[in-house]
Amino acid sequence: MRASRWFFVMLVGCALSGVPSGAAEAEGRPADLFQLSYDAEAAGKVQDALAALDRLPAPQKDGYVAELRRGWLYHKLGRNKEAVDAYGRASALEPRSVESRVGALLPQMALRRWADVEATARKALQLDPANYLASLRLAFALYNLARYPEAATIYGRLAEMYPSDVEVRSGLGWSLLKMGKGGDAARELRRVLDIAPKHALARDGLRAAGVSN
Q: InterPro entries attached here (predicted)?
């Protein structure tokens, strides 16, 4: 709320003084420019959110947080190759960062670079062995690489820790189905439909297994 008021006051001030808003923003403190970026994203102006980062002074402009945020914003704009590059720069600046690796998984998945997803997820898991998102996305990559037993192992481990997670159980069901274990797959997919009866992937899986919903 405080930041929104600041943004409003800044815009009004510029309008009254005739000072171009871009010039005023360029003179802002790094914290203000980061907030400007957050506010622009919240307003659906993702390109403006990205542009605010380019107005940051050195060293923040090319710093870890700016690169991490560029990765996310590029991904939101569908510029996934640039998103991967930005997350890579963030990881280089903070070599033990887990969040930059986990963040990079989304644009890598959008690009269907499954081998890269596997490598990035495994690096994140080296740093944080219990990381949920890295595990989930690694399992999804292995499934797409047709390494179904490995995917099923990871999905199964996640299902023990997150028994109500329908994405995990659906992934486990489909992995088992691809392994030719129709009965086990149907059991997992039915567990999904027991709590999410409209789950499309679970319904499709049961049909593929030759089992009625």
A: TPR-like_helical_dom_sf (IPR011990), TPR_rpt (IPR019734), Ycf3 (IPR050498)
